[in-house]
Records
---
Amino acid sequence: MPERYYIDDPELGTVHIRLNARARHIILRILPDGTVTVTVPPGVSGERLREFIAKNRRDAKKCLQQLDVHAIDWDYALDTPFIRFTLERGGNAGFQLRHKGRDFTLLCPPDTDFRDKQLWLKRIVEEALRTRAKEVLPERIARLSAQAGLPFHSLKINTSKGRWGSCSTRGDINLSCSLMLLPEHLADYVILHELCHTVEMNHSPRFWALLDRFTGDSHALREELSHHHTFTI
């Protein structure tokens, strides 16, 4: 079997298959340019690979929608453990954003033409992510801080496109509202990563050992996080 080959998927398009002798698990990744890649360890059968792609197809399609600047239309949906954002046909009174808990619904006039509203719609989604992050993250970091015994000075929530989080020497922690796009265990990993920087300000072996105390396997979580992307406009 070649080290690299391609599969044509009816919904995901061309899927790039990469065999990696060092891989331990099958990993699907959406690159920033929309390329779908699947890394496969040795010994995985074609049937097992097809089952994996089928199981992850829905999540992969959502990621592709987020990357595509023309993807927001009536079928657009953002659904994660932290937030659900959908579009619905409403009355003729203009656009209305409804919010209750993790649910955000944008009511749109029935005759809406989304082609010239993509940037504005992306900003609406980003603002929903920011609103939800302000509801979720303060409580979450306070709880993890107390459990780990790692106090911090302050928390700020931003819309950073390049970093999930950061920590200053004073213990000021910044978290991107894009954490709302992650599974809960990865959001907690990012938070714990920054909390550990209140003790170890670099990525020395001592830092990773400290993070391992709270996450179990920080390097595996870091690898998993690399397959996700912050929200971009």
Note: The chain has three domains: 4-67, 77-127, 136-225.
---
Amino acid sequence: MPDRRIDSIDRSILDELQHDGRMTNQELSEKVGLSPSPCLRRLRALEADGVIFRYVALVDPITVGLPVTAFIRVRLDQQDDRHLALFEAAVAEFPEVMECYLMTGDADYQLRILVDSLGAFEDFLRQKLTRIEGVGQVTTSFALRPVVYKTALPL
């Protein structure tokens, strides 16, 4: 990504798009106080520079049959580059894994997964996660309900 300074107008564009990524350029330009042409130029520059790197639809997991959210902390037996890369490549292939973070502290990784049932979670754990070479310890917490869930960055 090029070295780019994000000014207040860029922040306004980003803030508006984080709340409604489907608005037209005309609507966006009105909200941020620009005419359509300069607004579109700025938007295209934000996309070209990788500040905006994709557009998505947010889907309610419960309505599509994925009501179980689990947070899994994983400790590897060894934290060398080979084991880290092996683990990261493996979990990137699992559709249940929504997020995976390399962590500091008592766990090497934290994962957020979505599944349709506790049985599906057990299958994920036994057939996928614990079969990755180097996985030494797994600790899981289940979410009862979301309290705060944001997708928009605090600009």
Note: The helical segments are 8-19, 25-32, 36-48, 81-92, 118-128.
---
Amino acid sequence: MKKTAIITGSSRGIGKAIVIALAKHGYNVIINYCTSKVAAHNLYQDLIGQGYNVSIFQADVSDRKQVNDLFKHTINTFGGVDLLINNAAISEQKLFFDITESEWDRMMEVNVKGVFNCCQEALPLMVSQGGGKIINISSIWGMVGASCEVHYSASKAAVIGLTKALAKEVSSMNIQVNCIAPGIIDTEMNDIFSAEEKQEMLNQIPLGRFGTGEDIADCVLFLASDATNYITGQVISPNGGYLI
């Protein structure tokens, strides 16, 4: 029987790579997007055209009702939820002194409350099914912090804390909760940096390249597999040796 995965924020970048990887490995996949409608529908049409079992649903993960609707759609379409990938996030580069209260709140609403909302919707379903897996996408900056990204770093650190605590709480229910903290990944999120800034970052990566969405998707496939049934509450950071 096919397993079903929800990947939040999966129209572009890392989320898109995860969708493609899971679809190719036989999962029923829910593509979730908030604002990137065209990109999400293009991905959906491409995968449907290749014969994969995918569905698409718009939802802002910071809004509990929309998240509830996302899970209802998943149940109605595929019958269950075996794997939740909390990938949806926003980022912003800004001096700490210039961060407004509304910018801080929005960062926490999407990056932290979004994970909270989705986990609370997923867990009762996983318990009723006898188990499941949750993989939260954090960031290397949630581990070490990033200058001019205090609100982003704080939100991603919160995701790591949530992962570890929740893993302890639901382990007896045959649910594993783990976290991936990517290093510098070559996605649109890094378009804010100049060529010189990117080269400076590249010089600090021992493996000599930026990561790709596929690198993170490979890590997801590992954590989603039965090979990791004894792994929970862990943070894996694919970062090319940037942080060791």
Note: Residues 101-129 form the longest helix (29 residues).
